[in-house]
């Protein structure tokens, strides 16, 4: 017993000594804060070169598949395969592709942020939320494939089912959503370039955007799928390796862990809002929809999406748990917590004594892999929105592809500029775009959730185009009305479209500590669940009125007026 007590005392003294060292040492111990510029360029360009070479494999693989189908690359079916890789992928390829497409730069920020702010409730909610989209697709995607087997994306189905006006409206929202998410990925690349190498953000943003854009322009959608295989495996190996090592490095008392992990009403609120917000975004992730039509058959689709959802949910949990452990260690510092911004808690790893240059190199490779996997998927997904519209023009294949390439460039140039601006928008108040990645996402999520009920109701023949359009517009009006009534100004309604994160009105945090804007705000836990109810009710009500009017017209046609009365009525 005496030896045990002596050992405990020694461990306690060593822990206090370590805490004191952590307070007195600089933030970047040992080998310095940054990789050298040469090391940073070498890692970035080396990874991008490897991904480009792997993407090049897509061309012979595509040609082999086309030969098996008895068509040429210049034929209409060959061009369609370049856009869609239709009916060619097994479940493992789909699973890796879903994992790589979803596992972007957001993993570095938002799971840890949610877990630190809301504890276990928020983390579990996030893990469920990120898997809901692919899991729902397992159920609904076969119906979409059956109704429109030659589609390449959900926008094609909208055009065929509801007509031109709903197609334009949905396409604008989804391209805006994908654009915001692409900007978020490129901005994260700029942030990480500055954090790991000390170089300006554009040193990371521009090369990554250009290289991923070039290899997807050459190889099309098959190039994105082939790179996904390698990127998914790389991401999973590096994440498990880094996070498990960190779990062994952290040091804190039970009281600090209890402080971080305790569930609360606030955490439950976050879980609810996350489930709806993230689901609304993921279920309309255009990159996922491409993979619905790339799957070899329905069985491969369902298994692939199910396994992919499980992998992404697992990665989310690992990042969130690591963030909680790092926050508990930060609270254990006897000189007080160092990190005051929940979104940055994962990067406490870089301030640990064990974070050698080798660890920093591995983390930087992970960052490049995660962001490149998202960027190339979003770039090809955006082009798929216009693929069917181009087919209708009956243009030569080369002209269709040329227009698509021009569209890719037209989207990427402003995305690069916006990402550079956001990465450099820093100030002492921590309210610039450099720290508002989650807020950018919430701007897109609030719009995509308005599409869920109207569009999916369209799988049933009863719903009309006018009903779906009315339902989608009612969601936008509901958002604006909420802001108008809450803040008593019309501009409050307009700013609510940004979830109050951008504009002149700055709502204060709630009494329970919830931020005043974004999908972590208290209002989000009400708005996101209510929006599908409102939009669904309006969709079905307007469709009911239209169908009732059609029935009345049919009944009236059964009892035509006498010819004399018709003439009289026409005169009147």
UniProtKB/TrEMBL annotation:
GO terms for molecular function: spermidine transmembrane transporter activity. InterPro entries: Na/Glc_symporter_sf, Na/solute_symporter, Sodium:Solute_Symporter. The chain crosses the membrane at residues 41-59, 91-109, 121-144, 164-184, 204-222, 229-250, 270-289, 301-321, 361-382, 402-421, 441-460, 467-485, 524-545. GO terms for cellular component: plasma membrane. Signal peptide: none annotated. Keywords: Membrane, Transmembrane, Transmembrane helix, Transport. It holds the Pfam family SSF. The keyword Transport applies. It is a multi-pass membrane protein. It is found in: Membrane. PANTHER family: AGR155CP (PTHR48086:SF10), SODIUM/PROLINE SYMPORTER-RELATED (PTHR48086). Belongs to the sodium:solute symporter (SSF) (TC 2.A.21) family. This is Uncharacterized protein. It comes from Alexandrium catenella (Red tide dinoflagellate).
């Amino acid at each position: 017993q005496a030896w045990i007590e002596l050992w405990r005392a020694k461990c306690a003294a060593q822990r206090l000594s370590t805490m004191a060292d952590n307070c007195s040492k600089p933030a970047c111990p040992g080998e310095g804060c940054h990789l050298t510029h040469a090391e940073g360029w070498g890692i970035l360009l080396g990874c991008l070169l490897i991904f480009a070479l792997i993407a090049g494999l897509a061309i012979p693989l595509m040609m082999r598949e086309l030969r098996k189908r008895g068509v040429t690359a210049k034929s209409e079916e060959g061009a369609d395969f370049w856009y869609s890789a239709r009916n060619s992928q097994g479940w493992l390829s789909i699973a890796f592709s879903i994992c790589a497409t979803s596992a972007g730069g957001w993993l570095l920020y938002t799971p840890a942020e949610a877990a630190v702010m809301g504890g276990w409730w928020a983390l579990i909610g996030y893990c469920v939320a990120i898997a809901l989209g692919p899991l729902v697709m397992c159920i609904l995607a076969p119906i979409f494939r059956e109704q429109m087997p030659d589609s390449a994306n959900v926008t094609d189905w909208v055009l065929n089912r509801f007509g031109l006006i709903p197609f334009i409206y949905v396409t604008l929202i989804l391209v805006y959503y994908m654009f915001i998410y692409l900007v978020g990925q490129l901005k994260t690349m700029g942030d990480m370039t500055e954090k790991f190498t000390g170089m300006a953000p554009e040193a990371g943003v521009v090369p990554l955007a250009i290289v991923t854009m070039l290899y997807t322009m050459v190889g099309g959608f098959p190039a994105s799928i082939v790179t996904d295989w390698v990127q998914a495996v790389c991401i999973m190996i590096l994440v498990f390796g880094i996070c498990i090592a960190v779990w062994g490095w952290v040091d804190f008392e039970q009281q600090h862990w209890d402080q971080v992990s305790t569930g609360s009403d606030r955490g439950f609120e976050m879980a609810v809002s996350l489930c709806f917000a993230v689901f609304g975004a993921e279920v309309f992730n255009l990159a996922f929809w491409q993979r619905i039509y790339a799957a070899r058959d329905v069985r491969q689709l369902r298994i692939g999406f199910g396994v992919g959802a499980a992998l992404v949910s697992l990665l989310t949990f690992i990042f969130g748990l690591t963030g909680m452990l790092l926050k508990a260690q930060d609270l254990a510092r006897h000189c007080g917590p160092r990190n005051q911004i929940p979104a940055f808690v994962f990067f406490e790893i870089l301030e640990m004594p064990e974070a050698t240059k080798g660890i920093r190199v591995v983390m930087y490779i992970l960052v490049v892999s995660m962001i490149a996997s998202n960027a190339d998927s979003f770039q090809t997904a955006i082009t798929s929105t216009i693929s069917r519209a181009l087919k209708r023009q009956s243009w030569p294949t080369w002209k269709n592809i040329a227009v698509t390439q021009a569209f890719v460039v037209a989207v990427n140039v402003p995305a690069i500029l916006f990402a550079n601006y956001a990465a450099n928008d820093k100030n002492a108040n921590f309210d610039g775009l450099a720290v508002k990645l989650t807020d950018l996402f919430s701007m897109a999520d609030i719009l995509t959730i308005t599409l869920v009920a109207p569009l999916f109701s369209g799988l049933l023949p009863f719903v009309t185009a006018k009903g779906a359009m009315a339902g989608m517009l009612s969601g936008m009006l509901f958002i604006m009305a909420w802001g108008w009534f809450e803040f008593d100004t019309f501009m409050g309604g307009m700013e609510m479209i940004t979830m109050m994160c951008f504009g002149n009105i700055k709502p204060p945090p709630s009494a329970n500590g919830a931020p005043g804007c974004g999908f972590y705000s208290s209002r989000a836990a009400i708005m996101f669940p209510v929006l599908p109810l409102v939009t669904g009710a309006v969709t079905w009500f307007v469709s009911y009125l239209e169908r009732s009017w059609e029935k009345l017209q049919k009944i009236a046609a059964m009892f035509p007026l006498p010819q004399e009365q018709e003439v009289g009525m026409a005169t009147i």
